[in-house]
Structures are given as structure tokens and as C-alpha cells.
Amino acid sequence: MNSAKIYYLVTSIMLLLSSYIIYFNNNIVLGMYGMTVDNNEKLFIAVPTFIVGLFFAYKFITTKYKKQIDHSICPNCKETFNYNELKNGKCEYCEDIDTVDIEEYYKTNKEE
After folding, report:
1. What are the C-alpha distances in Å from 9 to residues 6, 17, 49, 76?
2. H helix runs in the chain, sequence order
3. Is the Cβ–Cβ distance between 12 and 53 less than 8 Å?
4. Is the CA virtual torsion 57, 58, 59, 63 positive or negative?
5. What's this model's pTM, rounded to 2 decimal places?
6. For residue 80, what are the CA distances in angstroms to 49, 56, 65, 73, 103?
């Protein structure tokens, strides 16, 4: 799981839990001087917090984890590259050929 998904998960849990505590707790005290919050103010705080928490939960569910490619190989000329040095993942020598992840290449082509 990449860091973005972890961020979305932790943030959504914190916001949803906070909105639950704000709404269902009878004695909420804010600040140093002990201001109490009535029910209308609870809704004003808890509902937006809940909505933002749902948004982050949605982002956690829909964000796809994409494996970062470190090294790639051209399936045509068999030349290896550092993927971050390539332009759009294309082979420098074959020009129009997309390079593939070197681990995936050797899993499918075991005879090489």
C-alpha cells in the first residue's frame, strides 16, 4: 500500500470517529474556558466532518496502487534501462517500442 492510500485511510478514520464523538457525546467542552456546545452547534461541526471523512474513505477505496517500475527491458532488442531515465517508457534504440518491467519480463520469458 502506498503512502497516499495510508493517508486516506488514517484521515477518513480520524474524521469519521471525530464526527461520531462530537455528535453523540453530551458534554463537549471547547477551549481553555470550557465553552459547552449545544445540539445545533454539534450538527454544524459533526455533519461537515462526517462528509469530509466519507470523501477520504471514498478516495481510499477508489485509489489504485500502481507498482513503481525501477528497471525495464525492451522486448525487441533486450536492452535494459532505468525506467526513470526513459522518455514515456519507450526504448531509446527501438524508439516506438514500450519497455516492460524487467521482473515481469523474466517471469513470462523464463527461457531467456
Report:
1. 5, 12, 15, 41
2. 3-24, 39-62, 102-108
3. yes
4. positive
5. 0.57
6. 49, 39, 25, 4, 11
Tens-binned pLDDT, residue by residue, of the chain (112 aa):
678 888 999 999 999 998 888 888 876 666 677 677 777 778 888 899 999 999 999 999 998 876 677 788 888 888 887 877 777 778 878 877 778 787 887 888 766 6
Those residues whose C-beta lies under 8 Å from the C-beta of residue 47, and which sit 6 or more positions away, are 19
| Contact predicate 45/22, CB 8 Å | yes
Say whether 12 sits in a helix, a strand or coil: helix
